[in-house]
Amino acid sequence: MNTWVVVVRSGMWFAFSCLEILFFIATHLLHDLLNNFEFPILIWVIVKCLHLQLEDYVALTKTPLEENRS
């Protein structure tokens, strides 16, 4: 159980780091990305990272009773 929590938390850290890097790139290159095909890809990656963080949060906050129901 402790190993799973570490994996989930490290996954959340990775997603957060991914967001930090992408926002840094977006703030410095936004004028180029708006006229380029890479901008929709950047938005998709940000949304995917947020979705992974949400899944990890839900997995961490489930009670044993809720786990038995699913």
What would you note in describing this structure?
This protein is an all-alpha fold and 70 residues long. The protein has one domain (2-62). The chain has three helices and no strands. Helix 1 (2-33) packs antiparallel against helix 2 (38-61). The chain crosses the membrane at residues 12-30.
Please render the helix and strand layout as text:
Elements: H1 2-33, H2 38-61, H3 64-69
Transmembrane segments: 12-30
Keywords: Membrane, Transmembrane, Transmembrane helix
Give a brief rundown of this model.
The chain is mostly helical. It has three helices and no strands. 89% of the residues lie in helices and 0% in strands.
Q: Structural class, from helix and strand content? A: mainly alpha
How many domain modules?
1
Helix content: over 70%
Major β-sheet annotation: none
Strand content: under 5%
N-to-C order of helices and strands = HHH
Tertiary shape: elongated
Rg for CA atoms:
16 Å
Question: What are the key terms here?
Answer:
70 residues, mainly alpha
